Structure formats: structure tokens, C-alpha cells
UniProtKB/TrEMBL annotation:
Residues 1-22 form the signal peptide. This is Lipoprotein. It comes from Actinoplanes oblitus. PROSITE patterns: PROKAR_LIPOPROTEIN. It comes from the Bacteria. Keywords: Signal. The keyword Signal applies.
């Protein structure tokens, strides 16, 4: 009787460990990517012509924090793509500061170019992450 009880407890214990209905945890890099996408969506809706560059400030601050977290989460597995995104984001920040200090055709064109670089490097990271997320 004691053996049967031990076997039943072992089987129940093992069955509890192999719950096939449990959903695997989402990797942190996927959650970070999703957060960045939400913020980018907000940035796309800002009317800079009507509200000025100041309207972007809260979103850009949030995006900077989220990109830092994405970089940390992606660094181990997707280092080249994470480095490219970090460099592009840093260039964008510098170009935005220059455009705020002196908003002219040249500085605004540089911002446009930097935004395209961030988009391209983000797409590269997303493509690399496709099998993970």
C-alpha cells in the first residue's frame, strides 16, 4: 500500500511538471519590441506641422527608454542588429537636438534621414527576431 501511494504521488508530481497546456513565457525582447511599436505608433500620429517638435518630446523620451531596454534584451542574441539600432537612435537624437536649436531645411532633412535609418535598423532587428517572437 505504501508503494502504491509513493507511485501515485510521483506520477501526480511528474504530471504537474509536464503541463502541456501551459503557454511558454514570452521572451523579454519580444515584450520590449511590442512596447517600442506602441510608442512609434503614437509618434506617427503627432502633427508636427501643427504642434511643433515639442509635441514629440514625451514620446521621444519614452522611445529612448524603450529602445535602451530593447537593446539590453536583444544584445545577447541579436548583437549586430541591436548595435545598429542603438547607433541609429543616437544619431537621431543628435539630429533632433540640432533641429531644435536651428530648425532649417538642412537640420530637418538630417532628422528625416535619421528617422529612415532608425526604421531600417529596427526592421533589421525585427527580421532577426522573427523566429523568436
Amino acid at each position: 500500500m505504501k508503494r502504491i501511494l509513493v507511485v501515485v504521488l510521483l506520477v501526480l508530481g511528474l504530471a504537474g511538471c509536464s503541463d502541456s497546456s501551459a503557454t511558454p513565457a514570452t521572451p523579454p525582447v519580444c515584450d520590449s519590441w511590442d512596447a517600442v511599436q506602441v510608442t512609434v505608433g503614437h509618434i506617427k500620429t503627432v502633427n508636427v506641422s501643427e504642434n511643433g517638435l515639442q509635441a514629440l518630446r514625451p514620446y521621444l523620451t519614452q522611445l529612448k527608454e524603450q529602445l535602451s531596454q530593447l537593446y539590453l534584451d536583444a544584445q545577447a542574441q541579436f548583437a549586430p542588429q541591436a548595435e545598429a539600432l542603438k547607433a541609429a537612435a543616437e544619431r537621431l537624437g543628435a539630429d533632433l537636438r540640432a533641429a531644435q536649436a536651428s530648425p532649417d531645411r538642412t537640420t530637418l532633412a538630417a532628422v528625416r534621414t535619421s528617422v529612415a535609418e532608425v526604421r531600417t535598423s529596427a526592421d533589421g532587428l525585427h527580421t532577426a527576431m522573427a523566429s523568436t517572437c
